[in-house]
Amino acid sequence: MSEVFARPAFGGKARPDDYYRKVDAIIATLRPTASQRTIAAHLNKCGFTTPHFLPWDRQRLANYLRGSHI
Fold this sequence. Notes:
It contains three helices and no strands. By secondary structure, it is an all-alpha fold. It has one domain. The chain is globular. The N and C termini lie far apart (31 Å). The model has no long low-confidence stretch (mean pLDDT 87).
C-alpha cells in the first residue's frame, strides 16, 4: 500500500522530515563527484521520488537544490 500524505500548507513540506534527511544525505555524498543526471538516476534507482512524487531528473534535482540548504 502506498503512503498518502495530506497536501501541505502553502510553503509547507510535502514529505516527512526523514525523507529529506535521506535524500539530502545521498545528494551530499554524490554531489562532489557525480553529475546531476547521475544523482537523479541514483535516487530513482533507490526508489526515491521527488517531494511531489515524480521521478527525479536533472532539472527536478536542480530545482530541489536551489530550494534546499545542501
